[in-house]
Each structure stands twice: as C-alpha cells, then as structure tokens.
Specification:
This protein is mainly α and 168 residues long. 75% of the residues lie in helices and 0% in strands. It is elongated. It starts with a helix and ends with a helix.
C-alpha cells in the first residue's frame, strides 16, 4: 500500500491522489487502507518516515550551504517547487493528525535542516546565544513554511528580509 501510494504520488500528485486510487493500485479494498490510515496524508507521512517515498533535499544532497543566506535561498527554492509544496502540505497534515508521525517527521526531515541553520547562524553571528540562534532559525523556517501552507509566494525580497533578521 505504501509502494502504491509512492507510485501514484509521483504519477498524479497529491491533489489527484485518493484512498480509492491507492486501494485500486495496491489491489486491496478501501476499508483495508482505512483500517491502517485515517487519510491520504497519514499514509504519505508513513511512506516518508519508512523511506518508501524519498525526498530530495538540496540542503544535504550537495555541497552544504556556507551561510544562512545560502541556506535560506536553497530552502526557499525548494519550497517554490510545486511537487514540494504538495508534499509539505501533506506532511503538515500528517504531523497534525498523529503525534508519532509528527515526531518521526521532525527527526527525519526537520531536525537535521534546523540544526544546520542554527550552526550557520552561530557561525555568522558569534555574539548570538544558542537559544537566540534556535529562535532565529525557528522564525525563518516558520515564516517560509507559513507562506507555503497559506499559499503565498516566496519572493527574493522575503528571503532577503529573513536573512537580515536571522543574521541580526
């Protein structure tokens, strides 16, 4: 069922995905899917946590960003991609629906990226405390994710202003 979800997500995207389509592709009844998952976002969340759906991560898949500005620009660029937007919305829903999914998604996806941004902030603003760097990283990533979740664009001016705020 997780494999069917991954395949369909790649073929038709989140908006076109349905429990019925997953069941049909997996060769099971819809009730079987609902026995394990309450929604399509929940099954997607589990597929990501289990590694069935692999997410490309430009923050870690290439040379690591050297500055908070570079980190924010890469993150914003990733969030501007339509397939990423759909995935972020699905994963946010999965995290909101289930505490275990929330913790697993945080540990697998959010925590490493957040730690990377915190380290870059501390390197670029040596007078910042660890707590201050954490809060700055939360504010910047939260602002960008908020724009994705509320269907607002992320433009260069927004990224520049967040960079200014993050680096103090």
């Amino acid at each position: 069922m997780l494999d069917a979800t991954a395949a369909l997500l790649g073929e038709i995207g989140y908006d076109g995905l349905s429990i019925g389509a997953i069941a049909l592709r997996a060769g099971v009844g819809r009730q079987t899917i609902y026995r394990w998952w309450d929604s399509k976002s929940a099954i997607i969340g589990e597929a990501v946590v289990d590694g069935v759906i692999a997410l490309a991560d430009p923050l870690f898949d290439s040379e690591p960003p050297a500055t908070p500005a570079e980190w924010l620009a890469r993150f914003a660029g990733t969030l501007a991609q339509p397939q990423t937007v759909q995935m972020i919305r699905a994963l946010a829903a999965a995290a909101a629906e289930d505490d275990a999914d929330s913790e697993a998604l945080y540990a697998r996806l959010t925590a490493p990226a957040h730690a990377q941004l915190v380290a870059l902030i501390l390197a670029s603003a040596p007078s910042a405390s660890a707590h201050e760097a954490e809060v700055r990283a939360d504010a910047a990533t939260g602002a960008l994710l908020y724009r994705v979740l509320t269907r607002r664009s992320i433009d260069e001016a927004t990224v520049a202003e967040l960079t200014r705020l993050v680096t103090g």
